[in-house]
Amino acid sequence: MNLTKIPHGDEKVTVELTVKELLVLSGIKFHDNHEVKISARKKLNHALEHTWEQDRTNDGPISYEMLS
Q1: Would you give per-residue pLDDT tens digits along the chain (68 residues)?
Q2: In whole angstroms, what is the distance from residue 26 CA to residue 68 CA?
Q3: Cα separation of 3 and 15, whole Å?
Q4: Which of 13, 6, 4 is nearest to 51 (CA)?
């Protein structure tokens, strides 16, 4: 049973990735091109930050108690 509560946690987020970025995030390693992993993680972090910023402006700050 998962007791973690994240406001709007079941909403879908769309992130546009290249095939290489998707492969890197699934665990395949590109030893000669570390930039692919960096790019993919930046895109995911940006989408997450954007989603949380929208939630914060709509509902106010997320309290620590809600996260645990």
Answers
A1: 667 777 677 888 899 999 999 999 999 998 888 999 999 999 999 998 888 776 666 655 666 776 75
A2: 28
A3: 26
A4: 13
Q: Is residue 62 a contact partner of residue 7, using CB atoms and an 8 Å limit?
A: yes
* H helix intervals, the chain: 19-26, 35-59, 64-67
Assess contact for 4 and 65: CB atoms under 8 A.
no
Is the entire prediction scored with pTM above 0.70?
no
Instruction: Report the residue count for the chain.
Output: 68
Q: Which are the contacts of 38, defined by CB distance < 8 A and separation ≥ 6?
A: none
Q: How is residue 1 written in tokens? A: 């049973």
From residue 38, how far is each of 45, 59, 66 by CA, in Å? 10, 31, 30
